[in-house]
UniProtKB/TrEMBL annotation:
Domain of life of the organism encoding this protein: Archaea
Protein's UniProt name: 4Fe-4S binding protein
Signal peptide positions (record): none
Lineage: Archaea, Methanobacteriati, Methanobacteriota, Methanomada group, Methanobacteria
InterPro entries: 4Fe4S_Fe-S-bd, 4Fe4S_Fe_S_CS, Fe-S_Ferredoxin
Pfam families noted in UniProt: Fer4_10 (PF13237)
Keywords: 4Fe-4S, Electron transport, Iron, Iron-sulfur, Metal-binding, Repeat, Transport
Domain 4Fe-4S ferredoxin-type span(s) in chain numbering: 2-31, 34-63
Length: 83
């Protein structure tokens, strides 16, 4: 299972992760004006939130990033035909 940690000192409260997450893993904590994890079990480790965070306040643990071979092979085949 993915473990998500948000550094509250680094989080600027922009809400980008809340808006970007396809599985609604995050919500805004209105009292702190910071993002918080509310559905960690629903995280599919796409890391779009991590990439969009302007303050790099997130850390994802226990993930395995796999190559998307179905895309890589197709693209490689197309490039070989072009070159």
């Amino acid at each position: 299972m993915v473990k998500i940690e948000i550094d509250e000192n680094a989080c600027v409260g922009c809400g980008s992760c809340v808006d970007d997450c396809p599985n609604d893993v995050y919500e805004m904590d209105e009292t702190k004006n910071k993002s918080k994890v509310v559905k960690e079990d629903d995280c599919m480790a796409c890391l779009s939130c991590h990439e969009i965070c302007p303050s790099e306040a997130m850390e994802h643990k226990n993930i395995h990033v796999a190559k998307r071979l179905y895309i890589d092979r197709r693209v490689s085949g197309i490039l070989k035909k072009i070159i």
